[in-house]
Amino acid sequence: MAKQNRRQKSEFEDKVIYINRVSKTAKGGRTARFTALVAVGDGKGRVGIAMGKAAEVPEAIRKGADHARKKMVQLPLHGTTVPHEIVGHYGAGKVLIMPAKEGTGIIAGGPVRAVCEVAGISDIRAKSLGSANALSIVNALMDGFARMKTPDQVAKLRGKSVEEILS
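RESULT FIELD:
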């Protein structure tokens, strides 16, 4: 019987945002480990981020990707961009997220760019306003995405039509 390929082709794209070497000091000395912040997305508006920690880098990346797949959220996209401007907060991290016209591209720093690429957002402008820590920036970005609403959702909440909201 032929050996089947254990790792099948996934519908999700993984992107490593950063890898960090950490250590724990115990009675026997220091034990080194690695943490990996990973973003996972399907390119159609679903994205998740998570940290993985292990003794080896590839294992940390795999764990991070597995955790991120479990924590995926659906983004409210408006074509190739986001529906409105918003500021996401997490700890000392703040990210200003702004919609952009088609053809603009991703105008954002490293961690934000990586998340937007795997999410399938191709036109966006973003600015990190607070902390420079990648984990805080990415969590602030996800907070902003979670609080975004489409015009349909706003109209339903207010009991109005979409035309009344957009005018």
